[in-house]
Amino acid sequence: MTDIAAPTLDEELEARYRARSLWLDTLSEPLTPRESLAADIDCDVVIVGAGFTGLWTAYYLKQLDADLRIAVVEREIAGYGPSGRNGGWASPGIAGAAKAYGCARNDELVQRALHETETTVDEIGRVAAEEGIDCGYSKQGALTVAMTEPQRRRLVSNSARTYERGDIERALSPDQVHELARIPGVVAGGFTPHAARVNPGRLVRGLAHACERLGIVIYERTPALEIAPGRVRCAKGTVVADTVVRATESYTTELPGHHLSYLPLYSLMIATEPLSDDVWESLGWRDGLLICDAHHMFFYSQRTSDGRIAIGGRGAPYQLRRPISEAHENAPDVFERLRQTLRKHFPAAADATITHHWGGPLAVPRDWSMGINFDPKSRFGFAGGYSGHGVSASNISGRTLADLVLGRDTDLVKLPWVGHQVRRWPPEPIRFVASRAIVELLGEADRYEDRTGKPAFRTRLVQPFLAPR
Prior knowledge:
By secondary structure, the chain is an alpha/beta fold.
C-alpha cells in the first residue's frame, strides 16, 4: 500500500483559503501566506487589513508620496475577507441616504456624491489596466428587473434615491429588458451604464502585488491585537507609526470595544459550472452585464469572465454567538433559495451543476451609512460600514483616506460620508432580535408580494432598523 503524506501547514492553509469563494479557488497564483511580522518595526503609516480598503489606501498614499514607508498587517492573507468573496459589482450608489449624512436638502452635494460613485467605476478599471491586473473588468452596466407591480414601484422610487442604487438612467419595458437578457416574467426594468463586472479575487490579489511593486510591505498571518494611535501591537512585534489606519470593516466587531459598531450580516453566493455557448445564446445575457432584482431580499448576479453564472443574496441568519465564523458560510436554505432564483430567472441554466457556494460578512452600521474618518491630531483614521457596497465604496475610502492623511484639500474630503460617525447598534439581545426580524419580515414580505401582486406594508415594522430614507 502506498503511503499518503499528510498535508503540510501551507497546504492546509491553501485549501482553507481557496474554499472561501469561487474567486479565490480559481486563482492561478499560490495562496501561500507572505511573511509574518516577527519583530518590532517603525514606519510612517501602518494599515490594519489587507482587503480593498487597506490596499487602496496604501496604493494611493504611495502614488501621492513615494517616500512614505508603509506597512500593512493582515490576520490571514490579502483578500481573505469580503474583498475576495463578494459579487464582483463595481457599481454606483453608496449604502445609506442623504438624510443620514445630513445633506437631504443639499441637492448639489448629493449630485456630487453620486457622480463620485459613478466615476469610481472608471477609476477601478483605470488602475486595473495600468497595473496589468487581469480581473475580467468589463463595464457593460447593470440591469435591475421588477417581477411584480410592487417591485416596479420600488424600482421607480429607487431611481430617486441616489445613494442606494445610483440613478436609474433608463426605465425599460419588458421587450427592452429582453434585449439585454431573456428573463421570463419581467414587468419592467431599470438600467445604469455606470457599472462594471470584476473578479474580486483577482482584483484584490492584483492590487496587493501592485502595492508591493511600489515598496509597500504586507505582513500576513499577523493579527492585530491592539490598534491605537501611533502603534499596532501584534503577537510577535509592535509597529510604531506616525499614522495608523484601521481598515477592518466587518471584522471591526471582533476588536475590543467595537462589538456594537456594526451588525455583521452574511451575504451568500453560488456559482454554476462554465456554461456552453448554446446556453448563453438561449439566455440572451449580454457579456459583462450585471443583473439584480427589486425584491426586498434581492439577488445580484454576474456573467463571469470564464462563462459561469455567479448569483448571491442576503438572508443568512445572524448568530448571537460568534457572529463572524467560517461555520456561518454554509446556509443550505439560502443556497436553495439561490438555486430556485437561478432556475426561475435563467431557465436555460436550470440543470447546470453548482460548483461553488460561499459567503462572507458585511458591515452594517445602525444607520446603514458608511463613514470615513481621520483625526489629524492623533493621526488615526478608519473607514467602513459599506453594507454590501464595498467594491466601489472601498476605492472611494482609499483615495479619501490618502488625501486626509496627507492633508490634501480635495473634493473627496468634502463629500458627505467624511466625518460621518456611524451609530452603534443596541446591545444584545436587542441587536440579535432586530437582525432576525429584518430577515424574517423582509423574506415574508417578498413571498406575500410574489403571491398577491400587492405591496407588503409589514416592512414598516422593521423600518426603525433600516436606513433612513
